[in-house]
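Reading a protein record of the kind used here takes only a little practice. Think of the row as the fold of the chain written in a discrete alphabet. A record is reproduced here so that you can trace the correspondence yourselves:
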Amino acid sequence: MSLPTEHAIAEEKLSDAERQHAKRVLETALLVAPEPMSLTTLKQLFPAPPAAAVLNALLADIQRDWDGRGVELVKLASGWRFRARLEMQPYLDRLNPEKPPRYSRAVMETLAIIAYRQPVTRGEIEEIRGVTVASTIIQALKDRDWIEVVGHKEVPGRPELLATTRAFLDDLGLATLSDLPPLAELGNLVLPDGAS
């Protein structure tokens, strides 16, 4: 089989063989990558960078190729990656019985406020929650790489403006903040049945 010419991929003139080869290159890179890969990074796989439209079409083909399998190709905030489908997670959990870290209600409330009101200051979080936000809560969220300082509010003391990161969206399996569940549904996700 002949490999795609440098200009074929860049100019969207792919034969079936060239298209299959390009998909195989993308699929291989995505399967072995430890982190999501951006379109910019994926373009570097080819001698002549393909147009974003070409890459997106090839990635959509790969997504369809993996339909019905235990693994899926998804687009997250920081790029594309393969991951196990949600219905496969109970089986994978048996291999790694360690429980993920559990966060207190205060940490989760603080994270939710930041996610839905960003950018927000610590004072604004305290006003919404009605209690002081401990430095350890903010630090735990920074250490997890779920929030970051994106600036300072132009008021006396210039408090930090906090916002969520792409890692936060990636960990939740979301591409954008608009993919977050509506705020009204959040209470049902956080509170166990019967709690108020």
